[in-house]
Specification:
The complex is a heterodimer of chains A (about 600) and B (about 200). Chain A is of the alpha/beta class and about 600 residues long. Chain A contains 25 helices and 20 strands. Chain A has a 6-stranded parallel beta sheet with strand order 3-2-4-5-7-6, with helices on both faces. In chain A, strands 11-10-9-12-13-14 form a 6-stranded parallel beta sheet, with helices on both faces. A 6-stranded parallel beta sheet of chain A has the order 16-15-17-18-20-19, with helices on both faces. The radius of gyration of chain A is 25 Å and the shape is globular. The chains are: A alpha/beta (about 600), B alpha+beta (about 200). Chain B: One of its GO terms (biological process) is L-valine biosynthetic process.
Chain lengths: ~600, ~200
């Protein structure tokens, strides 16, 4: 081991010489070796002063680790999130200290609330400078504490292998989440006797999965078997638990209609006969309305977000609630459960399936279909087949469905286009819906789509983005230009910050306060980055333009001009119960 | 549900930054911490937080779940005042001259369970350990004689019904936690939970 004071004077060359002599390795090499041991092959990052030793080591790992140089650290973490969501693996980010680290905060918060496994490795100033307000020093551990599942600062190289092993274990196990490891520059440079990498499999104070109590599963099955109008609502827990098959088997045997949260979308194909649509503020009419008519509500891997429940004192008061969740803190957090089933749904669902009777509920299911008919005539039809010449977001998604046949990964940003895309996109495969659900991060889609394209390169990735959100992270076009991931960028431009405009129209007497956003010529911007594209505004061009985008070799930007003041309906207005869902603005 | 005083006992690993991680769970919900103490526990290497808040039981239960969810937290318990033995320690600095002249110190000490920690020419420091009303009462007594300094420690508490943490820790160290580790409050209150 070398003392810090000596180390600052060490040049890279000398470090390498020492490696040969002592047969020990640097902290930086230990970081990269850890990544390889965790089967990481892609890293999203941006170099800087305090992380230079790791980047120097990376120079020799080019053949084993693909590093994607983003244009902003927020882009790196969103890309890592998109990668994680498309691949089911843990996304990895490199960033430097100070501004590099603080730029990760939005993405960490997003990954935290949406349970996305991400490991961020940030550089930090030399340990002896900690607390001196050194150049690019920031207290990243304390800044990121509320938005990380776990974080840890390493000041000695010998701690690196164990810290990273813990980081990957914590990020990916149980209810996943973001982890940040802050490594001081001296620790990155320091040489230490490396004993090899050991994966972490147990931390005594951390229990990723609560023990499954069979009595509760039995109790839940009893309730389900006695139910007349059971209703399943499911979230991302099904996807994160890789329990899609188990989930499908459960609802098919029990014959229970099932609705998804925005995060749970695509866990079953969107056209599954028991799939009755999306929950939530802009979800489908039936699932919202009938939440207050079911007699047993079975919540699986979802957390009763306020956008799903509306007013809590008017939410499913008539129903017995069965709540399956891996995170004990979610049980009874918002909605009191009658029977809590703690555990990984991959384990609990098969137990439950074994105990439930094989049944069908034709009349109950018909109620959902009737609601859908009503929704179709008032909300869906005008979106799908509008009377006027002006394009709607819905028909763009409909046409996209026809061309992709529901096989694409759809990455959405935040706002009206997100709601429309999630309402109408057809999805045949799990992990097809990548969106910022909990945090609602505008600017998420473009970098997340880049990540998704690396996470699952076998599938087409379409990023559906609004004109507002695209301008928040459009610098990542530079990343696309340089590394050429195949991302189809579909901008739905309504020349407004549409969702806020909709609320101002509906709830603020149409006082449009700073929602009128001007955009650059997006096609020209893309062209500046050597990305092909076009803008259309006519229905007659739509299908051909989408086909051109999808068939294009490499990334492509298609901007579709859509109606300026279209609204998303149905809607559960804020502060109302789910049964007070409205189908048009006249009903508000 | 009525707000009342709850004492939260948290067994944790001894980690830098964990205090902040726990404290922000309270501040995020705009809950004031009345008293917070960290100390070693009955088990080597395991730390013990004692936190006092005034809240409804429902809020406290949810908070404990959030605390327990933190990676470096082993276990969090909450108890009402009836379920614990608790003490605080207070120090009082008074001018020796006045005290020696005007007060019958010995009677004072025996009556309030106080003890003189330091007696110097210029000042005397008394110590009282007890519950809030006891330490408060002693302030009233000394105030007329010119209380120079007063300080009170956080609450420390022993849970009456606890068997300590030695046995539990062993269970935590196994890879597969035993039934005991994962306390499911529903199981313990079966009848209440399953009333339909």
């Amino acid at each position: 081991m070398i003392k810090i004071s000596e180390m600052e004077t060490l040049t890279i060359k000398e470090t390498k010489k020492q490696v040969e002599e002592k047969k020990s390795i640097s902290g930086s090499v230990a970081v990269l070796d850890a990544l390889l041991n965790e089967n990481v092959n892609t890293v999203f990052g941006y170099p800087g002063g305090a992380i230079m030793p790791i980047y120097d080591a990376l120079y020799d790992y080019n053949d084993r680790l693909e590093h994607i140089l983003v244009r902003h650290e927020q882009g790196a973490i969103h890309a890592a999130q998109g990668y994680a969501r498309a691949s089911g693996k843990t996304g990895v980010v490199f960033a430097t200290s100070g501004p590099g680290a603080t730029n990760l905060v939005t993405g960490l918060a997003d990954a935290m609330i949406d349970s996305t496994p991400v490991v961020c490795i940030t550089g930090q100033v030399f340990a002896h400078l900690l607390g001196t307000d050194a150049f690019q020093e920031t207290d990243v551990i304390n800044i990121t504490t509320p938005v990380t599942k776990w974080n840890h600062q390493v000041t000695d190289a010998s701690e690196i292998p164990a810290a990273l092993a813990k980081a990957f274990y914590i990020a990916g196990s149980g209810r996943p989440g973001p982890v940040l490891i802050d490594i001081t520059k001296n620790a990155q440079m320091q040489l230490f006797e490396y004993e090899g990498y050991k994966k972490c499999e147990h931390i005594r104070s951390y229990r990723p999965k609560p023990i499954v109590r069979k009595e509760y599963v039995e109790e839940a099955a009893k309730l389900i078997n006695a139910a007349e109008r059971p209703f399943v609502i499911f979230g991302q827990g099904v996807i994160l638990g890789k329990a899609e098959k188990e989930f499908k088997a459960f609802i098919e045997k029990a014959g229970i209609p099932a609705a998804w949260t925005i995060m749970g979308m695509s866990a079953i194909p969107t056209d599954h006969p028991l799939g009755v649509g999306m929950l939530g503020m802009h979800g489908n009419y039936g699932p919202n309305l009938l939440t207050n008519e079911c007699d047993v509500l079975i919540a699986i891997g979802m957390r009763f977000d306020d956008r799903v429940t509306g007013r809590l004192d008017k939410y499913a008061k008539q129903a017995k609630v069965i709540h399956l969740d891996i995170d004990p803190a979610e049980i009874d957090k918002n909605v009191k459960s009658t029977v809590p089933v703690w555990g990984d749904c991959k384990e609990t669902l098969p137990l439950l399936t074994a105990l439930v009777e094989s049944k069908v509920y034709p009349q109950w299911l018909q109620k959902f279909h009737d609601c859908m008919e009503k929704e179709k005539s008032t909300c869906i039809e005008p979106e799908m087949n509008p009377a006027g010449d002006i394009l709607t977001m819905g028909e763009v998604i409909k046409t996209l469905n026809e061309l992709t046949d529901g096989n694409a990964i759809v990455v959405t940003d935040v706002g009206q286009h997100q709601m429309v895309a999630c309402r109408y996109a057809k999805m045949n495969h799990s992990k097809s819906n990548i969106t910022s659900g909990g945090l609602g991060t505008m600017g998420y889609a473009l970098p997340a789509a880049i990540g998704a394209a690396y996470g699952d390169p076998t599938r087409t990735t379409v990023a559906v983005i609004g004109d507002g959100g695209f301008q928040m992270t459009l610098q990542e076009l530079g990343t696309i230009m340089q590394f050429k991931p195949n991302v189809k960028i579909l901008i739905l431009n309504n020349q407004f910050l549409g969702m806020v405009r909709q609320w101002q129209q509906l709830f603020h007497e149409k006082r449009y306060s700073f929602v009128d956003i001007t955009s650059p010529d997006f096609v020209q911007v893309a062209k500046g980055y050597y990305i092909d594209g076009q803008r259309i505004s006519e229905r007659s061009q739509l299908k051909a333009a989408l086909k051109t985008m999808l068939d294009h070799e490499g990334s492509y930007l298609l901007e579709v001009m859509v109606g300026k003041e279209n609204n998303v309906f149905p809607m559960v207005p804020q502060g109302r119960g789910v049964a007070e869902i409205v189908l048009s603005k006249e009903e508000i | 549900m009525q707000k009342q005083e709850f004492t939260i006992t948290v067994y944790t690993e001894n980690q830098i930054g964990l205090l902040n991680r726990i404290a922000i769970l309270f501040s995020k919900r705009k809950i004031n911490i009345d008293s917070l103490n960290t100390s070693p526990s009955e088990v080597d290497s395991v730390h013990r937080f004692t936190i006092v808040i005034n809240e409804t039981e429902e809020v406290v239960r949810k908070l404990c779940r959030q605390i327990e969810k933190q990676v470096e937290v082993l276990k969090a318990y909450y108890n009402t005042n009836e379920e614990i033995i608790w003490q605080e320690l207070a120090l009082y600095k008074v001018p020796t001259e006045v005290i020696a002249e005007e007060v019958k110190v010995e009677r004072l000490l025996s009556q309030y369970g106080a003890k003189a920690v330091v007696i110097r020419k210029d000042y005397t420091v008394f110590e009282v350990s007890g519950q809030r009303d006891e330490t408060d009462a002693f302030i009233k007594v000394l105030e007329p004689y010119g209380l120079i300094e007063f300080v009170r420690s956080a609450r420390v508490a022993i849970i009456k019904a606890s068997d300590g943490f030695h046995k539990k820790l062993k269970e935590f160290e196994y890879r597969e936690p035993s039934e005991e580790v994962i306390e499911n409050e529903y199981l313990d209150k079966n009848e209440e939970v399953f009333e339909m």
